[in-house]
């Protein structure tokens, strides 16, 4: 019996039948991918794609996002002002009337960006995932789409990802974010110094020293914290601190300190929180002129 159940989260790829050549696949996939990226992405014309087909399977798909600019939060801003961005208009859709399904596999997906810009931070990305299952779905109107199939323990995915960004650019972004948060409680950021250090391959510590103003008042604020992943892939946040010797500033920071107190000692099992078929084998953190995080799936 053919599987004619409704299909969910289907990426539309034009009319059936499925592509028979790599060139045809890329011609259909490119507009679908750009639509999925949405209005938060500038420079989408720089996206480069390449692929090989092997029957119903995609032997490889290479996506290069070098030069693309991602504006975090711009879609929400436009949606809130009646713009084109609309979170209720996703690139995927549900298909109620299915005519046929065909099992397939994306054997290797590679994603590169050297770099892409996230806000004003150049982010270098090197990622590869193998064993992504999907189905070609045709509806009764003759439209074709791709339906993702979740991995499981019988058909796990494997791969790796490395994301890196210059430390100075990250610190500059942190300054802007901190300044915005301080403004919300009536403080002005005068200066901020941030130190990042690594106590091991899976640990990063942060220490910050800020000068803030409120009217004619000037005071210092100290912040610190450590995030560490153990050999069992459990993330622990500890040694959190946010303090000021100035009693007025300390009072204004009271709510933020309460949130930090809730996070102190918080543990997240990175391995168990992943779906079946996705197993985190290792995480590494590099701290230097560049801050990099590497993860390996197995």
Write up what this structure looks like.
With 298 residues, the chain is an alpha+beta fold. The protein has 2 domains: 7-149, no CATH class; 167-297, no CATH class. It has 5 helices and 17 strands. The protein has helices at 22-37, 74-80, 167-184, 247-252, 254-263; strands at 7-15, 41-42, 48-54, 57-64, 69-70, 93-95, 98-118, 121-139, 143-148, 158-166, 188-200, 203-214, 217-229, 234-243, 267-269, 280-287, 290-297. The longest helix is centred in the middle third of the chain and has 18 residues, at 167-184. It is elongated. The relative contact order is 0.12. Residues 75-89 have low confidence and may be disordered.
- Shape by Cα distribution: elongated
Q: What count of structural domains?
A: 2
**Kindly, what is the distance between the CA atoms of the first and last residues, rounded to a whole number of angstroms?**
34 Å
Please estimate the helix content: 10-25%
Q: Helix/strand/pairing class, anyone?
A: alpha+beta
Order of helices and strands: EHEEEEHEEEEEHEEEEHHEEE
Number of strands: 17
Radius of gyration: 23 Å
| Tally of individual helices | 5
Q: How does the major sheet shape up?
A: 12 strands, mixed
User: In terms of per-residue confidence, which ranges show pLDDT below 50 for 5 or more consecutive residues?
Assistant: 75-89
The average pLDDT score comes to 91
How much of the sequence lies in strands comes to over 45%
Region (Disordered): 74-99
């Amino acid at each position: 019996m053919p599987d004619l159940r409704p299909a969910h989260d289907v990426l539309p790829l034009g009319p059936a039948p499925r592509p028979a050549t790599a060139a045809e696949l890329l011609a259909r996939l490119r507009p679908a991918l750009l639509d999925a990226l949405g209005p938060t992405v500038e420079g989408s014309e720089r996206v480069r794609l390449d692929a090989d087909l092997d029957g119903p399977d995609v032997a490889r798909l290479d996506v290069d996002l070098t030069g693309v600019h991602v504006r975090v939060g711009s879609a929400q801003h436009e949606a809130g002002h009646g713009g084109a961005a609309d979170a209720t208009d996703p690139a995927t859709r549900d298909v109620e009337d299915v005519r046929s399904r065909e099992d397939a596999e994306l054997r290797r997906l590679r994603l590169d960006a050297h770099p892409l810009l996230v806000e004003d931070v150049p982010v270098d990305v090197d990622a590869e995932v193998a064993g992504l299952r999907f189905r070609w779905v045709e509806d009764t109107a003759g439209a074709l789409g791709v339906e993702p199939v979740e991995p499981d323990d019988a058909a796990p995915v494997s791969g790796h990802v490395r994301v890196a960004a210059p430390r100075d650019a990250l610190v500059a972004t942190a300054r802007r974010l901190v300044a915005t948060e301080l403004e919300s409680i009536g403080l002005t950021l005068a200066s901020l110094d941030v130190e990042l250090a690594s106590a091991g391959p899976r640990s990063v510590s942060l220490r910050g020293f800020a000068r803030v103003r409120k009217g004619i008042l000037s005071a210092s604020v100290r912040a610190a914290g450590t995030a560490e992943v153990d050999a069992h892939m459990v993330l622990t946040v500890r040694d959190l601190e946010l303090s000021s010797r100035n009693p007025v500033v300390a009072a204004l920071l009271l709510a933020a300190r309460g949130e930090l107190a809730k996070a102190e000692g918080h543990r997240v099992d990175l391995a168990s929180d992943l779906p079946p078929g996705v197993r985190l084998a290792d995480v590494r953190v590099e701290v230097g002129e560049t801050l990099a995080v590497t993860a390996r799936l197995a």
